[in-house]
Amino acid sequence: GENVEQHPSTLSVQEGDSAVIKCTYSDSASNYFPWYKQELGKGPQLIIDIRSNVGEKKDQRIAVTLNKTAKHFSLHITETQPEDSAVYFCAATPPKLSFGAGTTVTVRA
Amino acid sequence: KAGVTQTPRYLIKTRGQQVTLSCSPISGHRSVSWYQQTPGQGLQFLFEYFSETQRNKGNFPGRFSGRQFSNSRSEMNVSTLELGDSALYLCASSSLGQGNTEKLFFGSGTQLSVL
Fold it and tell me: Are A43 and B56 within 8 A, CB to CB?
């Protein structure tokens, strides 16, 4: 089955700085890579996704890049704000939707 | 549109008991998936229902079961509870077809504690 590894497990950044989270996947059949943000006491929320036929996608302060050859993809958050503090999960599918272990991001004011 | 609603929000049970969790998907969504979230194992897929039929199943024992009703509402049941079943159980719905794991909308989950 799919194995998704995510690094780092925790990330602390100064407000205004950038944050980068990296993931690798094992199944070459995977072609859809979403990122979810989970705030305390809530369920994960889809924030951005990318398909294998695209190398990069951007939505305001967040962007995702995909290197299909190397089987890794990354989430970039620029100009971080306190409300960006949360746990971020990467995922890959198919086959089933497999999640990374999560990255706890803390933005210091 | 109302989001995915899960009830109850918190639940405390003892070993050996059984529990039923409920999920109401976003109106119009026919696919409902269940996930178990624990600090040690992360998010693990339990099963997916589409049009009242289980379409996919994760690697969980038979003590974990579920069903979906004609209005797409879903319930998950865990029998003979074990301490290791303590977790946040998340329900997600999707407007896409069966087996499609894209564009999931998650509820806030049911936090189950087994004592």
Answer: no
**Kind plus residue range of the DSSP H or E element containing A57:** strand A56-59
Rounded Cα distance, A97 and A50, in Å: 14
Q: Tell me which of B6, B59, B102, B105 to substitute to probe the interface with A (most A C-beta atoms closer than 10 Å).
A: B102
Question: What is d(CA A46, CA A99) in angstroms, rounded to the nearest whole number?
Answer: 12
If you average pLDDT over residues B52-74, what whole number do you get?
Answer: 94
Residue B2 near chain A (CB below 8 Å): no
Locate A75 and state its tokens.
């989430």
Mean pLDDT of chain A: 94
Q: What's the DSSP call for residue B83?
A: G
E strand or H helix at B90:
strand B87-94
Give the tens place of pLDDT for each residue, B18-57: 999 999 999 999 999 999 999 888 899 999 999 999 988 9
Asked, as a colleague might, if the bond just before B61 is cis with ω within 30 of 0, I would say no
Best CA proximity match to A88, nearest among A10, A2, A33, A1: A10
pLDDT above 90: residue B83: yes
CA angle B49/B50/B52 to nearest 5° reads: 80
Minimal CA separation from A32 to chain B, in Å: 8
What percentage of residues in chain B have a pLDDT greater than 70? Answer: 97
